[in-house]
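Hello again, I could really use a second opinion on something today. My current little project is about how a certain protein chain folds up. You're getting the sequence in one-letter code plus the fold written as C-alpha cells. Here's the protein in full, and shout if anything looks odd to you:
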Amino acid sequence: MKPADALIIGAGPAGLFTAIHCKGRKVIVLEKNAVPGKKLLISGTGRCNLTHDCKLSDFFDHYGANHRFLKTALHGFTNFDLIRFFEDHGMETVVDKNGKVFPASQKASDVLAVLINVCNKNRVEINCYQQIEEIKKTESGFEVKAGSGVFISRFLVITTGGMSYPVTGSTGDGYHFAKLLGHSIVPPKPSLSPVFIRDYTMASISGVSVQNKMVYLYRGDKKIMEHSGDIGFTHKGLSGPGILDFSRNILSNDILKVNFIELKSDDFRNELIKVSEKEGKTAIQTYLKKFDLPRSLVLLILKSINIEPETRLAEITKIQRNQLVAAFCEFPFTVEKVGGFNMAMVTAGGVNLEEVNPKTMESKLVPGLYFAGEVLDIDGDTGGYNLQAAFSMGWLVGQGISQSDKG
C-alpha cells in the first residue's frame, strides 16, 4: 500500500492547484492519461484563457444560478491572485481587448509547465496511467485501488472534470466515484456549446458575426430568459459568446429570437413610420445602414420576408413594416439541438452542490472527501471564468487540507 496525507484523482488545473496548496502534506495525484493537463493544453484553442481582469464583484454574474457557491473560493483566491501566482513563477501574462488574460507566450503548455514545476518543488507525486478500479471509505480515511497498486490517505479529492471533450479523458469518471461514496449527481449536459438550427437559412454568411445583441429564449409560447452578447453565424447554426454562454439554458425545440437593432419592436415601428414620412425616397437597405449590421446579414433578412433591398421607405406597406419589425427585432431561430460533449467547452451539471460545503469544498456526507472544478454542478461563461473557478476551488481545498490537524 502507498500512503499519503492527501490523494487527488485528476491532474487537471483544479487537481494540480489543489496539490500545490496542500502545504506540509504528502500528496499523491492519480491521473488516468499518459500526461497531466491534457484538456488544459487545448483550452482557448491552445492559448489558455486563464482568467478575466474584471473586478471581482463582476465575476459572480458569469456562473449562472449557482454563482453563490463560489463566493468563498473566489474571495479567497481572486483573479489578481492567480495572475500574481503565475508571474511570481516566471510566466508573464497579457490582457486582450475583451479583458481575457492569457500567458504572454499564448501557449497553454507554459501554464501547465508552471503547475508541474511547482508541484515538483513541493514534492507532489504525480502518477499517470492510473485507471481507478475501486474506492473505499475506511475508518482512517480512504483506500483507492488504481493501476499501479493500492493507495491510502486521510483525505481524498476528486478533480476529474466533467464530460466535455471526452477525447482528453473527460468521460464523467468523477460522477461515478461520487456516487460510490454516496453523493447524488445533477444530470450532466453540454455547456458553452454552439447551437444547431432547424431549417437554417444563413449558411451563406458563415463566419459573419454581430456584436452585443439581445437574445430571447422562448419555450412553447413563453419567454423564459434573455441574454446579450456577440453572436457568430456558422454553417449549421449559431455560436459566439452570446450563444455559448446561453447554451446551458437551451433545449431542443426552443426558439431563440435575436434583436439585431437594439430597439424595441414598438420603437422600431414608430421610427419606420416617421422616417418614411420624411425620407420616403430612401431605399430600405440604405436606411438600415444606420444600425451598423453586416450587409450580407441585412440582405438575407430582407430576402426572408420578400422585401427587395431597393424598395423605398414610402412604398413599404403596413404588413411589410410589421414584417420588418419582427425580422429585425425578434428574428426567430428554432433549435434543432445544442452541440454535444465533443464540442462543448464545459459541462453543466455534476456533483450536487447541496451536498458540498462551499466554505471548504468538503463533502457534507463523507468527512475528508473534497471536490473541486468541473466535476461539481457549476459552470461559467467564456472568458476565463471556468479556469478561475477551478483554480480558486483548488486553492480552497488545499487550504483546508493543509490547515487541518494531522490527528
The two ends are 20 Å apart (CA to CA). The chain has two domains: 2-190+343-403, 195-338. The domain at 2-190+343-403 is CATH 3.50.50.60 (FAD/NAD(P)-binding domain). Residues 385-403 form the longest helix (19 residues).
